[in-house]
Amino acid sequence: MASSLHSAFAWTKSPLIVSAPMLRIARPQLAVSVSRAGGLGFLAAGFDVTDLEMDLERAAGLVWHSKYPPITPQTGPRPLLPVGVGFLNWGANLTRSLATIGKYTPAAVWLFAAAEPASENMETWAKEVRSVTNGRTKIWVQVGSVAEALEMAQRVRPDTLVVQGSDAGGHGLCQSASVITLVPEIKDVLSDNGFGDIPLIAAGGIADGRGLAAAICLGAAGAAMGTRFLACHEATISKGYQNEVLRVSDGGVSTVRTTVYDRVRGINKWPQQYDGRGVMNKSFHDAREGMSDEDNRKLYQEEILKGDEGWGPEGRMTTYAGTGIGLVKDIIPAGDIVEGVSRQAKAILECNPDGLSK
Ligand SMILES: Cc1cc2nc3c(=O)[nH]c(=O)nc-3n(C[C@H](O)[C@H](O)[C@H](O)COP(=O)(O)O)c2cc1C
After folding, report:
1. 98 in the Ramachandran plot: left (φ > 0), alpha (ψ -120 to 50) or beta?
2. What is the percentage of the chain residues whose pLDDT exceeds 90?
3. Where along the chain do its domains lie?
């Protein structure tokens, strides 16, 4: 399975390290830096695909027209762009996105969180994207339960499934398990149903080489990280947010799964089975103590005016992040994250004590 990923993404190293599409945060600089280091970087097109064309054009510029050697050869009219694009399917417009996908041929699209009937929506996306890129753009689907994984395998036949556990930062299923049980159970069920060849990428709570090595032991071919990449030079993120990621530890008690952060920000179209994991702050505590959404939203709007000061335990700005937040201690280049995580995981998997430190 690792070899099927490597043949699709020739520049990548094994085990595969992926930077997750993170809305408004994962832009061309981050995605290209991750791919340049031998990982697979995803841009986030989100639910509103207005920046998609601009971001892919910028990514293409960074890949082929920067001071660095190209990651993939720019041959033919449609060279494969060595980054992926993540969509939030409950809002993303397929017709609008298709022409751009066809024009830039990203290495993969990552589909997530379609409204019901979800598998029908994903099936249509997969068919159309494959058709417009002659199957060169691979289809990744992020799932959060065993049932969802099997349904997507049967209906969509994705090239890769991202298995998102409950520790993940940002949005995911309200009810889910950690990758510790989710990855092996999905692997067994897919295998029993004739889909054992679909590679799995584990996501949720993985922030260093120990997590990546564990994901490999569980049966994944690699890992996707979001929270770890919040603290890198290339993330499009405010200082207040990034400082909060460095400050917070003990993610199981300092973060929470909730819909409060969507409600205060007026984002109300997520399908009901999803919520988001973020650091507990004043918006969350006030909601829990009975404050109405309207009052809470007003206070949030006032907080925006404080800029970076709006983050922190007394703040109201949202810090979406996973339980792995306590493992994130420094802001470094994205490529160094990929190289450090890869080196540490390989040392563990090869039982090489000399390579164990980050
Ligand atoms: C700030 C943030 C924003 C995210 N935005 C998206 C998104 O736009 N699309 C998506 O598919 N997943 C999104 N995710 C979830 C990731 O795809 C991934 O499942 C998660 O980051 C993995 O867990 P980790 O944060 O513990 O590494 C986001 C995660 C974070 C932390």
Report:
1. alpha
2. 92
3. 2-237+327-355, 247-325
Length of the chain equals 358
How far apart are alpha carbons 282 and 262 in whole angstroms? 14
**Cβ(278) – ligand 1 distance below 6 Å:** no
In this predicted structure, what is the pLDDT of residue 107?
98
| Nearest atom of ligand 1 to the alpha carbon of 142 | 11
Q: Is 202 exposed, middle or buried (0-12, 13-18, 19+ CB in 10 A)?
A: buried
Tens of pLDDT, residues 247-293? 999 999 999 999 999 999 999 999 999 999 999 999 999 999 999 99
242-257 pLDDT tens trace: 999 999 999 999 999 9
CATH class of 2-237+327-355: alpha beta
Q: Is the CB of 337 under 6 A from ligand 1?
A: no
Interior angle at CA 136, CA 14 and CA 85, nearest 5: 70
**First-to-final CA distance of the chain:** 26
- Asked if 110 contacts 31 with a C-beta cutoff of 8 angstroms, the reply is no
Residue 240 is given by DSSP the state H
Tens of pLDDT, residues 141-189: 999 999 999 999 999 999 999 999 999 999 999 999 999 999 999 999 9
Q: What's the Cα-to-Cα distance from 29 to each of 102, 214, 351, rounded to whole Å?
A: 21, 28, 34
Distance 67 CA to ligand 1 centre (A): 30
Asked if pLDDT for residue 1 goes beyond 70, the answer is no
Tokens 């509103």 -> residue: 48
Nearest to 41 by CA among 337, 346, 349: 337
DSSP 111: E
Confidence of residue 76 (pLDDT cuts 50, 70, 90): confident
Query: What average pLDDT is seen over the chain?
Result: 96
